[in-house]
Design a protein that fits this description.
388 residues; disordered C terminus; 11-stranded mixed beta sheet; Rossmann fold; Alpha-Beta Plaits; 35% helix; alpha/beta; 5-stranded antiparallel beta sheet; 22% strand
């Protein structure tokens, strides 16, 4: 009987809302940070569910749960929205690193292909999706990398930057051929790594003079790659494109090939190829979207809270997105506004750095196919071998 009475009292303590036990308030540049001690039976998820209520109660712009340890959670309150105005410049921040915007924490947001090799970037018209691509062009143009474009909108998206692109495909048949070239490059780099007994091109044992040029692949309107009618020719093209793009995504990191896949519409109805590709794109950027399915494809498998935040993005703040990067946590981000003219000027200024596609594909086998043995040997490169 005594044991039952103790259990009843414990349950009552859990069920009844109690005032939080607050620690010392520590000021930050945008607000304040505070540690909260949990009551018996409380978990960090209990605070995660009431962050909106806390922001209203504390009369601040937002409250985020940033860390936790047994018995404690740490909350950060932001007094005003730091994304109202983003004035920092786009910055080439080291090899394969581009600072493209600002996080809701006030910290810069950097797309780092060395840490997160492949990115999915979705958004409706005028949401800021194309602006982010402009940011990447501006930041990557002065770097010793090759840019490759897939533009199924007839080339109108990436043609202005063609001077800085080693290759540009504007039709699905061209995309299939270009992807076959990329797979051929992978096979050639596999052979290079085998000769030097390394697992990826960044390994220190690989001589610098033999290290191949990194390639960043920009794919616009990915849905157009997978849409098809009943024609046998279209089915064959879609099958070839889906298989080769997935191969590049699976093996690209080890061999210096990185993907940025963009689209207005990304849904499971486009076929299993899109779903399999999505699983390889661990970096996620979701702007305002027109349908919930696209937001789910971008964020739903990562964090349900991110999905809710993405659906609240206002059309009055173009360039705002929910991002998930190397930390595995989601943040609101707003990219720096870069006009098409500015990106075109950057591409023209650094056109002399563009590697010739013929040089990149020299000696490759462009079959578009890889043996299963090749896949097994290189699908898990050692993280410590990647550059820092």
């Amino acid at each position: 009987m005594v044991m039952l009475m103790k259990q009843r009292r414990k349950l009552r303590r859990v069920d009844v809302e109690r005032a939080p036990r607050l620690g010392v308030i520590r000021p930050t540049s945008l607000g304040f940070r505070i540690t909260v001690r949990l009551h018996d039976g409380q978990t960090p998820e209990d605070y995660g569910r009431v962050l909106d209520k806390l922001s209203h109660a504390w009369k601040v712009h937002s409250v985020r749960l940033v860390s936790w340890k047994p018995g404690k959670v740490t909350l950060v309150a932001t007094l005003t929205d730091p994304l109202e105005s983003v004035t920092i410049p786009v910055l080439s921040d080291g090899l394969l690193r581009v600072r493209v915007g600002l996080l809701d924490t006030g910290d810069p947001f950097t797309v780092d292909f060395r840490t997160v090799p492949h990115w999915l970037n979705v958004g409706a018209t005028q949401s800021g999706k194309s602006n982010l691509a402009n940011d990447l062009v501006v930041g990557l143009a002065p770097q010793p990398v090759a840019l490759v474009g897939f533009d199924l909108k007839g080339g109108v998206e990436f043609t202005p930057y063609e001077a800085r692109m080693s290759a540009l495909a504007t039709e699905r048949a061209e995309c299939a051929d270009l992807l076959a070239d990329l797979v051929g490059i992978i096979k050639d780099r596999m052979a290079l790594c085998r000769r030097h007994r390394v697992k990826n091109i960044w390994h220190p044992r690989l001589p610098e003079v033999e290290r191949p040029t990194p390639i960043v692949v920009l794919v616009d309107e990915v849905a157009e790659l997978f849409l098809m009618a009943d024609k046998k020719k279209e089915q064959d093209e879609v099958s070839a494109v889906a298989t080769r793009l997935l191969r590049v995504a699976q093996l690209g990191r080890a061999f210096g090939i990185y993907l940025v896949v963009c689209g207005q519409r990304v849904g499971s109805d486009l076929g299993p190829g899109v779903t399999a590709l999505r699983a390889q794109l661990t970096g996620r950027i979701c702007h305002m979207v027109n349908d919930e399915e696209t937001a789910k494809m971008a964020l739903g498998d990562m964090d349900p809270g991110a999905l809710v935040a993405a659906r609240k993005i206002s059309p009055a703040m173009p360039g705002t997105a929910v991002v998930i990067g190397s930390e595995g946590r989601w943040h609101r981000m707003r990219s720096v506004h870069v006009t098409e003219e500015q990106a075109e000027a950057a591409a023209a200024t650094h056109a002399h750095l563009t590697p010739a596609w013929a040089d990149l594909t020299a000696g490759t086998t462009t079959t578009g196919d890889l043996d299963l043995g090749d896949l097994e040997e290189f699908t898990a490169p050692d993280l410590e071998d990647l550059p820092v």
